Amino acid sequence: MKLISSFSQLAELKHWFIVEPKSRILGLKPELEFLAISNGEFKSYLHRAIVNRYKERISVAYFVCPREDKLIKPPEDLVERQASRKYPNFKWLDLLDFTQKHYRADGATLQNFTKWLMSSNKIYS
């Protein structure tokens, strides 16, 4: 099987760059939940596949979604070590609703989700 490149974008850089494939390497892409759960330590990034009619591409996606009523929040000891909280607690269904109905994912999704959540008076402890 031939390895195919893909595009990734880091929000801070605001431009796309090619990620060249490497054999025997597993690439992981953390999603927004990991950014919130890690209180900003694990970064998420946008990813788009290069597709064309000349090269085959196989992508395997595993979606790990908590129950819709699951509260998403970082561990207390992590927040204490960092001395500040970056994102409010939220329920998985709120993030799903926001990204499916109100906002297309980009580098500012979690910040805009936080504003939307607070304006909706959805406060979870």
Automatic annotation (TrEMBL):
Residues covered by the Isopenicillin N synthase-like Fe(2+) 2OG dioxygenase domain: 14-66
The cross-references to Pfam families, in alphabetical order and at most eight, read: 2OG-FeII_Oxy (PF03171)
Family matches, as InterPro entries: IPNS-like_FE2OG_OXY, IPNS-like_sf, Iron_ascorbate_oxido_reductase
What Gene3D superfamilies does its record include? Answer: B-lactam Antibiotic, Isopenicillin N Synthase, Chain
Per its UniProt record, what PANTHER family does this chain match?
A: 2-OXOGLUTARATE (2OG) AND FE(II)-DEPENDENT OXYGENASE SUPERFAMILY PROTEIN-RELATED
Designated name of the protein: Isopenicillin N synthase-like Fe(2+) 2OG dioxygenase domain-containing protein
